[in-house]
Amino acid sequence: MMRIYLDHNATTPVAPEVADAMAQALRTTFGNPSSVHTDGQQAKTALDEARSAVARLLGAEPTEIVFTSGGSEADNLAIRGAAEALAGSRRRHLVASAIEHEAVLQTLKALAKQGWTTTLVGVDASGVVTPERVAEAMTDHTALVSVMHANNEIGTIQPVADVARLAHARGALFHTDAVQTVGKLPVDVRALGVDLLSLSAHKLNGPKGVGALWVRRGTRLTSQMTGGKQERNRRAGTENVPAIVGFGAAAQRAIDTGLADADRVAALRARLEHGILTRVPGTMVNGDSAQRIANTSNISFDRVEAESLLIALDLDGIGVSTGSACSSGALEPSHVLRAMGFSPHRTQNSIRFSLGLGNTADEVDRVVAVLPDIVERLRSLTRRGPRPAAAR
User: Cα-flanking dihedrals φ and ψ of residue 169, to 5°?
Assistant: First the structure.
């Protein structure tokens, strides 16, 4: 059975040139970048080249890039690092949107247990946070505001530049989780006006296990990993050179291709949405239909449990998701859809389709062709079973 992969927001296939660069690094660039001999300096050169490529992708300077194990660690380093650097001041308040990735939300919960005050700002039914609501949440004690660039579940793009200006006007730092936008949208740290930005290689056809935090020059940050002086004293530990080389290759690929694939992917998403909405009754797109990244479609299927639909599609060779990969298997309602004010049923009947490298119109057409029968079969099982408690 030919499989169709429509879960690119969870992870992306590694591009061939990225795999080639990593294989070459594994074979030949084995030295420790901190070593002063030739083998070590060869590894350091590879590290520097990758750092420069990632910096170019963001419109940044290489010295502002801190390599991490991924987006979650980058979020942790940004929030914990900035908070701890300000721990001695009167600023003990943190603000974030209610639809942030769990790496941000769980970090805020952990800091709340250490005495920090936290505020989560809600969104409306479009899934977009308004700058005005963030401004209302801030106080003179706010240390940092964190609002993601685009949501991982519904794809909505947030007004990051506007919120960053408001945060700075109150004397607070601003962090954005740009894991879902780097490589899909133009991301320029200077234009966004942020202080800290997280990204991850495996979301832009690079390897898993490597990410980065961009830190604006002059931003105080307390290291969360102590030990050696790697990453300019901001993250100790011998660098994962092959993975970082792969990250650099993925960044360079994104620079070279630009957004050439964005229009193609957007057309595929439009084809997918049109097919589903016209052929499957009781379906609706979640989130702002215009203000979102081009590859993402989150669709509610009335009277269908999302987990059941996901499994049925998987058995038919189609890989999709119910939301964040970090929350899969939790069998809990989507916190993103819940924050948008949706009913309990709608928070549990939604499927995320996210397209990317390798997807074709034929694949989209096959998904649209098999979905109506699958959905009708699942709905018929529901009709024959006991009525849901809410309907009694």
Answer: -65, -25
